[in-house]
Amino acid sequence: MLRRRNVLTSLAAVAASALPLAVAAQDKPKVVATFSILADLAKNVGGDRVEVTALVGPDGDAHVYSPTPADGRRLAEAKLVVANGLKLEGWVGRLIKSSGTKAPVAEAAKGVQPLKTAEHGHDHGHTDVDPHAWQNVANVKRYVANIRDGLIAADPAGKAAYEANAAAYLEKLDALDKDVKAAIDAIPRDRRKIITSHDAFGYFQKAYGVTFIAPQGVSTEAEASAKDVARIIQQIRREKIRAVFLENVSDPRLLERIAKESGARIGGKIYSDALSGPDGPAGTYIDMMRHNIRAFSAALSS
Ligand code: ZN
Question: Which of 53-67, 73-87, 159-173, 243-257 is least confident?
Fold first, then answer.
């Protein structure tokens, strides 16, 4: 007990010395995003005015997540919650309810034209909407507008700042979109086929003209069937598909096996549903997209 009090006393001393900073941070509206990609977008729009955290952090899987009591407390303190929607975060509705938070929820994908899973080859019957809309940069412009509007509603005093930040970031997204298109255009058309673990690139496929084939459906929740795996191995051999890509949110073993049995090479690690840590190659949404197109270009062009 005595020890504990000592710790508390020294913590209090630390807190006191850091007081001006701590107070400033406390005054900032807290924004809680469901996963790392949305948190990065919210940081870009919110800038210095807000404090943004993600429930599912770097390299985490937002499809399947078990919220902690700390997540509930963070939501209770939030001024704004940012969620993807499109049935990505099946766990978040219950969490919001049990946290008792009064914060409004900005649905980032609101207004995006949703892709049905059957539109790009896979329908495993467990979902009908593809949630990975952020894989098309044009959709992320919509995300940014929705987050901006959510921030303005939650913190009207910051309107001018949020509008200016969003406008500057939207320009960066326009440049990114051009670069993604140019990178894919430079890959010979007959080589634009990519194997990934789960079906996270339907929107990328539709927007940029690369065919993605995945043994798992649009959620990491369902396992790939032996039949799907055998079908993909045959397809790789038949169509001479060059590379399979490991995803940061998926177990690499299935794709390693597919690569070994089909003769395709491992084209590296790509980031589909989560950013890397800040020191990794995909610490922001823009860096994630640039990393992925570099990996695709390197494996498919040579
Ligand atoms: Zn996914």
Answer: 243-257
